[in-house]
Amino acid sequence: MKLLLVLALLSGTTAATEEPPTIRWHHCQLNAADAEGAELDRAGAECGELKVPLDYSRPDGPKITIAMSRLKATGDRIGTMVLNDGGPGGPGLSMPLRLRVAMKEAGSRYDLIGLDPRFVGRSTPVDCKLPVAGWPWSGGSDRASFLRATRLQADIAARCRDNAGSVLQYVNTRNTARDIDQVRIALGEHKISYLGYSYGTYLGAVYLQMFPGRTDRVVLDGPMDPATYGPQLLRAMGPANEAALRDWASWAATRNSTYQLGTTTSQVLAKVQRIYQVAAGQGLRIGEHTVDDASLPIVLFGPLADDRDPARAVYTGFVQTLLKATNGPVEPGPELGGFLDGLLTPALSQQVSGMTAIACGDRAVPRDPHVYWRDIQQHRREEPYFGSLTRMLSPCAFWPVRPQEPLTRIANAQPALIVAADGDPRAIYANAAQLQKGLTKARLLTLQNARKHGIFGEYGNDCVDNRVVSYLVSGRLPATDLTC
């Protein structure tokens, strides 16, 4: 019996045990400073923990904790929906609060489950004790910068080995999918629904592959390509983000009376080039931080995945502050200051540790730094702003453990609705077709002329939102692929 259980867990199915998993439910607020927990409590949610195997090949061995929230259905209940916000390694505890609103009439008909995946957030944590966010990180403008950034990535891997080495081999997407199925069992559900953004689309696809027949409605928004997902997933994003930057520059040029960055796209980009040049020299002193050519690309890359006017106004404020810093020290506004605090201090150590460990645990990468240096150099002309970031090596090139399982091949006929924007700078549109090839019964809902990562309930497009809600209510996929 025990051997059958081990084999079932390894194959992706879950056998019955003498003691089925149970969730201990309670109030969400941990202490007076816990604003997230307080908000969940005010909304009527409850929080709980589930013990799951650290190592699914040893189901009776050490356990870790998976933390979650639940916002129960108040209407005609359809079932339970598990939510994932991407990352990899993004926390999901508060997701039910915004998804209940985004799902409109469907929102009150589901028990919404916000999970903190294994080793993330309130779940048993992994923390490499990182001095800065560290990854993704740019290789900079020259060989010296590249070597400094390479040493940083090696240091991150060494810190993860020293501070979390005992669990790194158990951090991967397949184990997270197994955790989700343990949640399903503990909730007493024959099937669950699932909604995932970004990396959550890959996690959802892996769950569909490993646990066929255990899902009802599935929405995958901002799709990853299962064949290329891994530590080098940014590599394909360089051209899309160069295009997004040019598009923003054109937007700013038409508003020169407001922002004074230039009246043409080329004039605005010349200002950005000036920022790059100074960052590569003495650096840009902004508040307590110095932004150099290794950190600047992530500052300009991070907020670029939203083409709505309010987001672009914030982004333009970043550029204005960076430009002022080319002439001497400046103080940042709250948005840029908060971004730099997260990037250049240990503030996000735990979250980045989880993200890095999941990516490195899923897929091996080349370990020779010269492979990445050559790739950056070959693409500097066509990817002048972001190629040194998207093509840079990660800590996975120095990771102390190898992936414990092969990458999951997605090839099944489980139904799902894929949502994609044709100009998404983070999940390029070609990913949608690749994911759909693996999910042969999936339908694709495309939003045209949008440069936004994460569409449903976030972008404000009624066509997309209404079609997703219709599917969540009826359970019927569109007969054909659709365009909004």
From TrEMBL:
Keyword Mitochondrion tagged: no
Q: What's an example of a GO molecular-function annotation for this chain?
A: hydrolase activity
Q: Where is the signal peptide?
A: none
The record's section on Gene3D superfamilies has: alpha/beta hydrolase
Instruction: Please state every residue range assigned to the domain named AB hydrolase-1.
Output: 80-256
Q: Which SUPFAM superfamilies match?
A: alpha/beta-Hydrolases
**Can the keyword Oxidoreductase be found in this entry's annotation?**
no
Q: Where is the Peptidase S33 tripeptidyl aminopeptidase-like C-terminal domain?
A: 391-484
* PANTHER family in the record: 2-SUCCINYL-6-HYDROXY-2,4-CYCLOHEXADIENE-1-CARBOXYLATE SYNTHASE, TRIPEPTIDYL AMINOPEPTIDASE
Protein family per UniProt: Belongs to the peptidase S33 family.
According to UniProt, the name of this protein is TAP-like protein
Organism of derivation? Kribbella steppae
Organism phylogeny: Bacteria, Bacillati, Actinomycetota, Actinomycetes, Propionibacteriales
